[in-house]
Amino acid sequence: MSKKILILGSNPETAPLVKRANEKGLVTYVIGKEKKSLSKQFAHYPISGDASNFKFVNSIIKKNGIDAIMIGTVDILLDNYLKVSNKNNLPCYANKKSLRAFSSKNNFSSICRKFKFKQIPDYTTYLKKKSTIPDNLFPVLIKPVDSGGGVGAQICNSNNDVKHAIKNAKKFSKKNMFICQDYFLEDDIQLYFTIINKKVFLSCVVDRTTNKNQKNKSPVCVGANYNSKYLKLILKNYKNAKLLWASTREVFNIIQAERSGCDIITVPSEFIGKIKIFNKSLNSFSLDTVKMFYQDALKAGFKI
């Protein structure tokens, strides 16, 4: 019998995770507040509800005999994920330290400062002291300190916007706290890292396409381009870094890998034999296909 996995969060970015779980032969359950989402469309069992609600998620696990649980791309659900995993003795990749780091933007910021990582300019402390910020600092982004997915976030172009944005951000914050940061107008990229036994690997760099029709609301990601056009620029400072394209799903991935400047690509043996047809004309390919069908018919004893 196939194992059952429960995925918390149903935002669009979680959809590839659900698809991959399906490909692995798992039975997928996805919980999220969204009534309609791409992640739920891929799930065997889409469930509408609050993935941060311990009692609700725990009841789903008990009722359906869930074998494993994980989060989509919603860091704010780490707290509940850790609790329900421990309650049901399920494997869990989170701990109290990671929970503290990723469930609060303030905590994450303090860790970045500790290890001297560059951060987006932050005006929260200044704003709390002065109640307004200089005009030359706009635009800024105000958001809840403990929320995710752009919920409660607002782009501000004036101190009047700031006043309303703070009130709105606190409304969506369990801690009744907000942060105010510089809002960048440049291209939007995301970096994904994989951490195994304390070793950090850069998994991929993505160019995010965002919906900018929401006026002063935080832009929402509507698509992602793997790999980023900035990837080579990021890697150029690392002499021993090589770009790897793994998990090839189709022959066309070979062309995509070459276009993106990959140094290495892992390819199944059945794909290698198809490389020779890349530059073949459609007419020749169609003719060969007809000939193949004709030979198959003759072998089967059909008379045409």
Summary keywords:
12 strands, 12 helices, Rossmann fold, single chain, Dna Ligase, domain 1, four-stranded parallel β-sheet, three-stranded antiparallel β-sheet, alpha/beta, 3 domains, 304 residues
Structural commentary:
This protein is an alpha/beta fold and 304 residues long. The mean pLDDT is 87. The chain has helices at 15-23, 38-42, 54-64, 78-87, 96-102, 105-114, 124-130, 159-171, 231-235, 252-259, 269-272, 282-299; strands at residues 4-8, 27-32, 45-48, 68-71, 140-144, 154-156, 178-182, 189-196, 199-211, 220-226, 244-245, 264-265. β2, α2 (38-42) and β3 (45-48) form a beta-alpha-beta unit. Strands 3-2-1-4 form a four-stranded parallel β-sheet, with helices on both faces. The protein has a three-stranded antiparallel β-sheet with strand order 6-5-7, covered by helices on one side. Strands 8-9-10 form a three-stranded antiparallel β-sheet, with no helix packed on it. It is globular and about 90 Å long. The longest helix is centred in the last third of the chain and has 18 residues, at 282-299. It has three domains: 4-98, Rossmann fold (3-Layer(aba) Sandwich); 105-182, Dna Ligase, domain 1 (2-Layer Sandwich), CATH 3.30.1490.20; 186-237, no CATH class.
